[in-house]
Amino acid sequence: MKKIIGILVLICVSCNHQTEKKETIFLADREAPLGWVYLRVYKDNTFEFESRGLERKGDIYAGIIELKNDTIYFHYSDSIPKAGNKAILTKNVVSYFNGEYPERLEIKKNELITE
Known about the structure:
The chain is mostly beta strands and about 120 residues long. It has one helix at about 1-15; strands at about 25-30, 35-40, 45-55, 60-70, 70-75, 85-90, 95, 105-110.
């Protein structure tokens, strides 16, 4: 009887738990030697910077962005990726410039509002 109740509870919890999709306002990416690098910015100014390999789930760095003129400041909620926490925004590319290496991602969608 306890097993049946446990199974029913799991079913109810999984039915009620729906993944909420956030609306993206900015998308940029590039192909890496063994995977992809993605930057997604959502309507609430949260973001995800993801470095994904071909056969593994990616490392995701998340936080909130601050946009001033053509510069994006990434305020990470945890660790900072080696690309850094500042980038210049141009028409076609977002370029990180203060990390251990320069990172350039091609912009696929841009609805960010600049000051």
